[in-house]
Amino acid sequence: MIGFVFKVTNNALERLVHDAIMDALPDHELEVNGFSINLKVLGAPTIQAENKTIQISLPLGIGFSRQAGLFTVQGHGKIHVKIASRFDVSPDLNLTTKSAIEDHIWLEKPVIDFGSLDITVEKLVDLILKHYHDMIVHSIDKGLKTKFSLSSVIDQLLESLQKDLSKFSYHGLKVFLQPSEIIVEPIYNEAGKMVFRGGISTSIVCTLNNPFEPKRPSLRWVDNLLNDNLSMMRLDIAEEVISQIVCEFINKQEYGGEALDAKECKVDFSPKKWTLFCCWKNPSKQKLCSKVRLVTMKQNLSFT
After folding, report:
1. Which has the higher per-residue pLDDT, 150 or 115?
2. What residues contact 67, with CB distance under 8 A and at least 6 apart?
3. Rounded to whole angstroms, what are the CA distances from 141 to 18, 50, 134, 222, 256?
4. How far apart are the C-alpha atoms of 234 and 211, rounded to whole Å?
5. Which CATH number do you get for residue 61?
6. Domain-located, residue 271
7. Is 266 a member of any domain?
């Protein structure tokens, strides 16, 4: 398994959320229960991610007015809106999100500039947030889905791994990988960044040509990714690779003062040993076949 750590700065998410909310809020007043309402974003939101939830705190300025006979009742205030964006990534790497306004706190108590209200300001703010709720959360969900794609991150990560592996070359032999599963722990915040930690279960093969068809791995969430798992790696070496290496070794040997010329190699594996059948031309140009047996527990060679 290949371990990885992927980090997203809170600033990047804050800009994403800010842009999404700016797109959602109209640039003109809206009518809510007979009041003319104007909402204004006062600054960048703050982000805190944990597990599969992104907590968003958004400062808003609220201005409201209503005609009351010959007079106009006006007021304003500032609040922090608390939004929770819960997300999940399915095994096929599809991102789903569900955001909701959960609470608000006053940054600046409401001030009535003129007149009096027949409704409490707190009740009015509740009505305003209820009115704007769907517009705000829909825009956040849309922004996360379109600009925060874990599948794109995985694709880039795998492409980078394959690029690094492609640097290895031994007489035309290359290393190829076929990832089968991405395992990810719950996300957490660290030094202003949202951190994804996980591992890639993959087959790694050393051979002449890529034997794998393109395939995107599935994703699985786990509570804890064991470090022991991250240290485990399996490398499959194709028979043709072993054959080429052994033939190359044999062809460096001499018999009767002349170099051997190995032409055919076949490997027969068993749990504790492998047997290599070789055919070559000796200096007299006769075709000979021999069997080489390596007993892995004893690390010795025997010829028959």
Report:
1. 150
2. 73
3. 12, 17, 10, 24, 77
4. 16
5. 3.15.10.10
6. yes
7. yes
